[in-house]
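input
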Amino acid sequence: MKAKEASSVRMISRRELLLICGIIIFIPMYLSLYVFRAKTITISYPPPRHISGSSTSANTTFMKRNNVDQLPMIDRHTIINKSLRGLVSNSHDSRAVDLNDSKHSPSKDINGSTTKKTNVDKLGLRSMNTSGKSLPNLSKDRAVEPKQPESNNMMGQTTKCTNVDQLPMIDGLTSSNKSWSSWLLNGRVVELEESKHPPSQYIEMNNLVPACPKHFDAFIKDPKPVYLLCDTIELIITARDCKNRALNSGGDYLWTWIKTDSLKASQTQEGNITDMGNGTYIARFTLRWVGKVTPVVAVIRTRQEVNYMRQWREKVPARFCYNGIFILNNVTATVPCHITPWMNLTHTKIKLDKTRHLCNFTDPFTGAPWYCIKPQNMPCSAYDYGRGDTEREVFYDDSKLYFNTSKGFDYVKNIQPRVINVVNMDQNRSLAGSFSTCEFTKKLPMCNSNERGGMFSPNSASGLYYKNVWVSLQCKKSKFDRNKMIQILKNKTMIFFGDSTVRQWFELIGDTLWNETCFKQLGATKLGYSAQYNMSFAFTFHGFPVRGKHSTASTSDYIANRLDALKTGGPDVIIVLTIWAHFTITTLEFYQNRLLSIKNAIIRLQTRYPGTRTFIKSANTREKVMISMSNWYAWECDQLMRTTLGNIPGITIIDVWGMTTGHYTGFNVHPDKSVVRNEVDMLLSFI
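output
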């Protein structure tokens, strides 16, 4: 018995010993961690000084980079809207439904057929749940958001802000949900009137003799064995048919440039190519660097293609396909949507009759039209998100029946001479070195955003590349490294609106200032903020139409609405926008209406906040793609943009068309990073 008691006592002593050791070791560690965290969260951070109603303290302690949990958030730029639950319950065409008590029910695809929840959406727009769990419920505080595609950029792969609620905001950008709230609430059911008929889609193929790019030729007028730096040359281009006969009419869409690959140098022609109207084209160049220079001619679209595209653009406004995803009570319906009610419904098994109606989501503030086929047994307010449908689009592009759809541009091979030799031997001009801007009569001015700084002169090239550095011929461009970028952007707010080509600017600035700036993705918006230098950055995509990405109703809006909602401005607020890549598949009238809404919103912003500067990124060239996204369409949109927005004081157009023509890295809708860096340097030179 004593042995048992002794054994029992020894066992209790061991437990007590372990407990005492644990207390001795872990409690001090816990206390030290608690004290450290308490010190950390008491740090205060100043909101940007240029935000109205905010103030800063001179004795404020700034956060170190390793403490991202407490980084202040840019409150002015998150776009988190009201719950769609309220929108659904308040819509005039919806029934009162308790979304929390919804039962598992089937979903309907674009063809109107019923699918089980375990299937995958036929169109690939939304994956059905395969785990047996129900889809996210709309009764939560935010809409169901599709997974955003990952970016190749560092900012797209890594999040540096973990406490997004603490970011200082850009005043007014949060409240720009007025459009989408009204957009859903006013989404009304409409019927197509029997008296109306869809526009004619008949396209006349003219009797032009087809041009054959492989037989085109070009020659330099009055060639010389050696050219001097700053000499000018004329390149004469002759269009021919497939029987190698010279054509007697114009209309072909060409690009020309000169290059020296070893120097990473290139330059487009002076001004536009002259179409003589008789099958002959003239391109003029000034030789601005020494070396072996090669002229290049690319036939982007032939005359018959241009004739077809011009008619197709206006007669077939629904030549691309979009889908709208409606969600209600865990039922998902995918239906066609478009900027016009006369959308192409072939390959969908949907017919517009008295049993099928449209949801009219025309924006009440900008007048931008957007229509969706109304899903059966769902209100219009159940609209959740949309995106382009590239799979269905290919069925409607009949251009492949008429034209060459091979990959890559058609280059003129017969150019004489193929290479010219440029030297620097003119003593009268006193040129030193192997490069010159050849501006002898005037000095380049400083880049001034109060003038039409980015507009190209009709009689000269906008610039050239030399050793992969863009040299502007319009004003003095600077090169911005990290320190110089901080110096120019300190205490400023930059807000980017538009497509992925201007998002490249936002991301390059973010990569350059990565060590000083915290970035975070919130809904459709990317945010950045530096407490140390009081710099704020934000990017958000434009509203419909959007081809390749999800556009969630609760986090998307039109640029004009966002500009009207801004409650901050002045000389320290910089607006940067572009809008072209997703509009090559619309009519010019539709595109111009969108530009006019933006123009008026910019004027209103300047009236509210004098001194606010706005920069417009022009369209850029891209690789050869389907005809609906052709460079010719982009060029037409770009010319209309310059005409509509180019004469407003306070707006500067940054011309990147020439910067993306002939660069040694080739053509891409998302240019090489070296090109983007030169574009951003051009932008910052105006600030």
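quick obs: Residues 2-41 form the longest helix (40 residues).
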